[in-house]
Amino acid sequence: MRLVTGIELSCELHGREVHLLGHFIDPRAPALEQMANGMLAERRERMEKMIALAQQMGFSGVTMERVVAASGGENLGRPHLARALVDCGHARSINDAFDRFLGTNGPLWVDRRRLPTAEAIRLVHEAGGTASIAHPGANGVSRQELKALAAEALDGVEAWHPEHPPNQAEAFVRWADELGLVVTAGSDYHGPGVQPDRKLGDRTLSPERFAALEQRARGYRSEK
Fold this sequence. Notes:
CATH topology of the largest domain: TIM Barrel
CATH class of the largest domain: Alpha Beta
Strand content: 5-15%
Number of helices: 8
Oligomer: single chain
Number of strands: 6
């Protein structure tokens, strides 16, 4: 088994949030490390604001300590607050917590800073990695938007993902091939406490597709 260094970045595309995947990155790349440290600090500040809102709503037991414990050492995010809400009896499940409290129109929602897609792609390339748009079906990314992102030097498309039915995954593979992009795959697994219906590694690439992805990364590393 090979381990590939990676990162997932929240980006802005036409006024909405999309995610960008970086594969084969150097995690010690100065610009990427500086950006990541800044975003970690912003994540904690955002979580503090969401917890304050929960406490104002009378959700007893929801504290930063409980959310940190729910994170298991991962970067703090809404799934960990959702777990705390469930553990404290304020939500029936993770999905219920998101549906009633943590969605973009929910009472605990706090917006966050997102990178422009072009800036995120540049940071990943400077770190020697490939930049792929994550779960485009879940974010409603169109073929025209993929074409525009390809013009910004996007490398790939995450075609195989748990939220993509087979016909949609096949469409993304076709679009990627037409636009000269590589194809990636991911289970988007965030742990059994967040998404118990998903399994780590249940979406994979063929050796040929993986080799094409790695070859792209070699090109960026050779430019450094």
